């Protein structure tokens, strides 16, 4: 297997609660891995650890089988080819839609990006990304004037513009109308054709079955099951973990 990302015995405690407990996982290059589990199982915490938004207490992360980290800064992850979306969408609210995409294409600091001159290449990439998610006509609108679904699509556009190797999707389909949902599904399928690695946290089991090449189940911060989605989702202990929620 071509493992592009691994966790080795990573741990995170919050006030004595083991949110992630000695978790070792491997994510294969070019595949979509669905990460599921009941509420509080550690899914979003795992993404936050892997993208540097919260520090892990112990263990290590390995990228491309050669970069070993016991500490990850969120400001550095883009340089390692990683990016993410959020459950609670995070945008630059008082900036136009187009500028929200240009920020991630240019200077890594927000203030630097605001004053950096945008070349033709940046503008072309931003236009392509916004057209892909159907937001080009909204390019001059402020981000905080978008609908909830449009805000999620803008976050997806930023992912596309950055052209990362690994993408973490944290419940990207939540609250989307069917037509918007189809856009995100097609984007994920397109990223897979491009050989990108995707980690999908999602509660909709039909989407997990449709999109995932493999499935990881967390429960109380520990690995409960992993394997083919159909096989994993039919396991009694997995079903009981959900029913026990």
Give a quick set of tags describing it.
single chain, 245 residues, alpha/beta, Rossmann fold, 2 domains, 6-stranded mixed sheet, 4-stranded antiparallel sheet, 26% strand, globular, nucleotide-binding, ABC_AA/LPS_Transport, ABC transporter domain-containing protein, BCA_ABC_TP_C, transport
Give a concise summary.
The protein has helices at 43-50, 97-105, 110-115, 120-132, 148-162, 178-193, 205-211, 229-233, 236-243; strands spanning 3-14, 17-28, 32-36, 58-63, 67-69, 82-84, 166-170, 197-201, 214-219, 222-227.
Describe the overall structure.
- This protein is an alpha/beta fold.
- It folds into 2 domains: 1-81 and 166-175 and 194-245, 3-Layer(aba) Sandwich (Rossmann fold), CATH 3.40.50.300; 87-163, no CATH class.
- Helices cover 36% and strands 26% of the residues.
- It is built from 9 helices and 10 strands.
- It has helices spanning 43-50, 97-105, 110-115, 120-132, 148-162, 178-193, 205-211, 229-233, 236-243; strands spanning 3-14, 17-28, 32-36, 58-63, 67-69, 82-84, 166-170, 197-201, 214-219, 222-227.
- The strands form 2 sheets. It has a 6-stranded mixed sheet with strand order 6-7-8-3-9-10, with helices on both faces. Strands 2-1-4-5 form a 4-stranded antiparallel sheet, covered by helices on one side.
- β1 and β2 form a beta hairpin.
- α2 packs across α4.
- The radius of gyration is 18 Å and the shape is globular.
- The two termini are 34 Å apart.
- Residues 109-113 have low confidence and may be disordered.
């Amino acid at each position: 297997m071509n493992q592009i990302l691994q966790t080795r015995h990573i741990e995170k405690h919050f006030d004595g609660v083991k949110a992630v407990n000695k978790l070792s996982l491997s994510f294969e290059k070019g595949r979509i891995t669905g990460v599921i589990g009941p509420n509080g199982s550690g899914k979003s915490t795992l993404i936050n650890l892997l993208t540097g938004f919260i520090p892990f207490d112990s263990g290590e992360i390995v990228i491309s089988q050669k970069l070993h980290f016991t500490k990850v800064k969120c400001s550095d992850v883009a340089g390692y080819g990683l990016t993410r979306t959020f459950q609670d969408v995070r945008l630059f609210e008082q900036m136009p839609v187009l500028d929200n995409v240009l920020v991630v294409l240019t200077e890594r600091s927000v203030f630097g990006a605001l004053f950096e001159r945008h070349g033709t290449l940046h503008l072309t990439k931003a236009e392509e990304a916004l057209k892909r998610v159907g937001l080009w006509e909204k390019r001059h609108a402020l981000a905080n004037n978008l609908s909830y679904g449009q805000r999620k699509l803008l976050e997806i556009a930023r992912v596309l513009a950055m052209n990362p190797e690994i993408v973490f999707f944290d419940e990207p389909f939540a609250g989307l109308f069917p037509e918007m949902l189809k856009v995100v599904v097609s984007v994920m399928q397109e990223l897979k054709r491009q050989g990108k690695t995707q980690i999908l946290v999602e509660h909709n089991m039909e989407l997990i079955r449709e999109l995932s090449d493999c499935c990881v189940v967390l429960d109380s911060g520990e690995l409960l099951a992993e394997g083919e989605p159909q096989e994993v989702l039919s396991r009694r202990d997995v079903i009981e973990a959900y029913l026990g929620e």
